[in-house]
Amino acid sequence: MAKNGKSGAAALKGKPVSASRSEMTEIVLPAQTNPLGKLLGGQVMHLVDMVAAMAAHRHSSSYVVTASVDYIDFRNPINLGEIVTLTSQVNRVFRTSMEVGVEVYSENVMLGEKKHTTTAYVTFVAIDEFTRCPKLVAPLIVKTAEERRRFRDALKRREVRLALRYGK
Question: What is the reported pLDDT for 164?
């Protein structure tokens, strides 16, 4: 029991979604592309995992490990030479885990064209730095209608993920 009489996550001070928002920008180089000059899907997944981990790390103020990737949708290809921007934020906190939403955009600077290329949902577990065991995560404070929608949708995805995992 904590000093204030609260135990567990209730004793942790909540953080707003804005505290976890993260962004990464890369340029697509030849070594990252397939023979058609498109960014490799595995490279996109690596970038998604990195920016999602940043958001989870910021929210939990702890080490985090990837627990699952529930969904990744490749909508448009990303071409050699384009700029890739990835944004992430924590959508919902459970007990020791967090769902992070990621959006990926490509930008063809020569044409002045931006495209939404990928959406993904990644779940992370916060890890205690000494015991290396899962640790409680501070609650998420949602403020806007969009944040509340993401919060609700994250619970639905979690229910599906757990049902698939445990066959229930």
Answer: 86
**Range 112-123 average pLDDT:** 97
Q: What tokens appear for 138 in the block? A: 């501070």
Q: What's the token pair of residue 163?
A: 């049902």
Strands 113-127 vs 97-108: parallel, antiparallel or unpaired: antiparallel
Q: Is the pTM of this model over 0.85?
A: yes
The domain of 61 spans: 14-166
Strands of 83-93's sheet in order across: 22-27, 83-93, 97-108, 113-127, 63-74
Average pLDDT of the residues in 116-139: 97
Please give the Cα distance from 20 to 55 (Å, whole number).
5
Single out the residue of 54, 118, 113 nearest to residue 81, CA to CA: 113
Q: Give residue 38's pLDDT.
A: 98
DSSP string, 16-43: EGGGT-EEEEEE--GGGB-TTSBB-HHH
Distance CA 17, CA 19 (A): 5
Q: Tell me, what's the pLDDT at 8?
A: 57
Q: Identify the CATH number of the domain in which residue 52 sits.
A: 3.10.129.10
- Domain count across the chain: 1
